[in-house]
Design a protein that fits this description.
It is built from 4 helices and 7 strands. Strands 3-2-1-4-5-7-6 form a 7-stranded mixed β-sheet, sandwiched between helices.
Length: 178
Amino acid sequence: MPGAGGCCFVGHRVGYSGTNMDVACGSGANFSALRTADHITAVDLSPGMLDIARRKAENLGLPLDLQVMDAQELDFADGSFDVVVSALSTCTFPDPVAALREMGRVVRPDGRILLLEHGRSSLGPLGRLQDRGAHRHFETAGCRWNQEPLDLVRAAGLVVTDHRRSFFGVFHTIEAQP
């Protein structure tokens, strides 16, 4: 479950040796979980967030390449990465399916895409409450908090190999392959 700092995969080893990519890395909250990677490429639209992420990576001693980049148009060759991770990001992408397709394109055919996302609660009353406030929340925070992450992953043509829900059915941990 994410912490107050937007941390998503902390406490979990999600990366593999080889090349790992963190899409929409923000402040670098996932970096400590990627320590086993031979190299990490992290992208985000915000240069300010990448500055924070750079300092975090330096403190962790991680081999890292940071780039300002749109998740919907990743400037990498097909199959460039062993593992692609992204956390709490699809809710903000203008076209989350396009971003997920890009993740599927840049990961190797036998690679893994690891996502932690939030969505509409599987508990009826909480889900309905999210639905009622969804438009206002998107206008103020730029976040679609009642989306269905699993549906987005499947719409992007990715194969779901593992899926778990937590925290009142709101958070989704998804493992997928191209």
